[in-house]
């Protein structure tokens, strides 16, 4: 890796800078320019593009675990300290007829060696107690193909009046997309791959749309943009599908994928955000125009380390815009 090579070539002092080769000087200056560009782009977005989101945290509590796995790297690691967070969110253009519509989102379970079945049983049990209108699973259910078997029987506890829905993530596709699809069907979970389901209430229609994964799935823009409804929710594993959501007039997109950055340092923020939009797509709420995006920190992740970024299950209660 270039970083390791630089560590061998330079002791990171100004006195030794003149002796560094031109190639390494160019690499360091290029890295600094790239970093400055990211910060500049983020500042421009935050000041000129991003809009405030009317939301409030209703409550937040830890999910008690009877037998939590032993977290590696010491007690500061929050990998096995899941939270349940509930928010009320006011959405521009959201119809009054669906005021109070609720969903519970679970994302990035990454069931496997570091996210065992016993841990997920307790997390899903806590989620099931929330009794929302719908449950949604926003991808990356497993880590490897062999982990599909370990989820059998777990997702059946997620029962809601209007159903349980899922989209696939990049890890699901890498491992065995068809196998995950069969798992979901067997658990009574409706998989949405570039398609929509609709709910009716007092003459109004709410469309729940699910897209295939941005990196590994089949893209069908028309399946999102062409949906006509009074209220629209988009399930997308990757938050970088937000430009499509804005184009389609989506009221709310819910995503995961980035795990909140997993390690978030004071003043620095998230360290690892696999998004073309950088840290703005790490976690939480953001709004551009009349479309709102929520990015879940997820339940699992890899490597098994979380700092100032505990795993979460989230309940969202949707209301019309107040302002």
Characterise this structure:
With 323 residues, this protein is α/β, with parallel strands linked by helices. It folds into two domains: 22-51; 54-320, Purple Acid Phosphatase, chain A, domain 2 (4-Layer Sandwich), CATH 3.60.21.10. It contains six helices and 15 strands. It has helices spanning 2-9, 22-49, 117-128, 170-186, 222-225, 242-247, and strands spanning 54-62, 83-91, 101-106, 134-138, 164-167, 190-191, 195-201, 204-210, 231-235, 252-255, 264-265, 269-270, 284-288, 291-295, 312-320. The protein has a seven-stranded mixed beta sheet with strand order 1-2-15-3-4-5-6, covered by helices on one side. Helix 4 links the parallel strand 5 (164-167) and strand 6. The longest helix is centred in the N-terminal third of the chain and has 28 residues, at 22-49. The chain is globular, with a radius of gyration of 21 Å. It starts with a helix and ends with a strand. The mean pLDDT is 93.
């Amino acid at each position: 890796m270039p970083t390791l090579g630089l560590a061998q070539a330079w002791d990171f002092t100004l006195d030794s800078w003149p002796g560094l080769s031109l190639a390494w000087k160019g690499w360091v200056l290029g890295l600094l320019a790239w970093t400055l560009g990211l910060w500049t782009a983020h500042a421009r977005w935050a000041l000129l593009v991003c809009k405030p989101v009317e939301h409030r945290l209703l409550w937040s509590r830890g999910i008690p675990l009877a037998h939590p796995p032993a977290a590696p790297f010491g007690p500061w690691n929050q990998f096995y300290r899941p939270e349940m967070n509930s928010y009320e969110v006011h959405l521009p253009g959201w119809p009054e007829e669906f005021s109070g519509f609720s969903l519970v989102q679970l994302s990035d379970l990454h069931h496997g060696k570091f996210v065992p079945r016993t841990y997920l049983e307790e997390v899903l049990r806590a989620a099931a107690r929330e009794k929302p209108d719908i449950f949604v699973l926003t991808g990356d259910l497993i880590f490897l193909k062999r982990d599909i078997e370990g989820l059998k029987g777990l997702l059946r506890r997620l029962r809601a009046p209007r159903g349980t829905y899922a989209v696939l993530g990049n890890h699901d596709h890498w491992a065995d997309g068809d196998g995950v699809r069969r798992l979901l069907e067997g658990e009574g979970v409706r998989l949405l791959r570039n398609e929509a389901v609709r709910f009716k209430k007092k003459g109004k229609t709410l469309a729940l749309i699910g897209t295939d994964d941005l990196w590994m799935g089949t893209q069908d823009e028309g399946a999102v943009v062409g949906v006509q409804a009074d209220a629209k929710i988009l399930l997308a594993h990757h938050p970088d599908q937000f430009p499509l959501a804005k184009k389609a007039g989506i009221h709310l997109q819910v995503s995961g994928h980035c795990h909140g950055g997993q390690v978030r340092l004071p003043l620095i923020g998230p360290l690892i955000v696999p998004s073309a939009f950088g840290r703005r797509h790490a976690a939480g709420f953001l709004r551009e125009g009349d479309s709102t995006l929520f990015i879940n920190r997820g339940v699992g992740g890899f490597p098994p380390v979380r700092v100032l970024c505990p795993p979460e299950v989230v309940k969202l209660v949707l209301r019309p815009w107040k302002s």
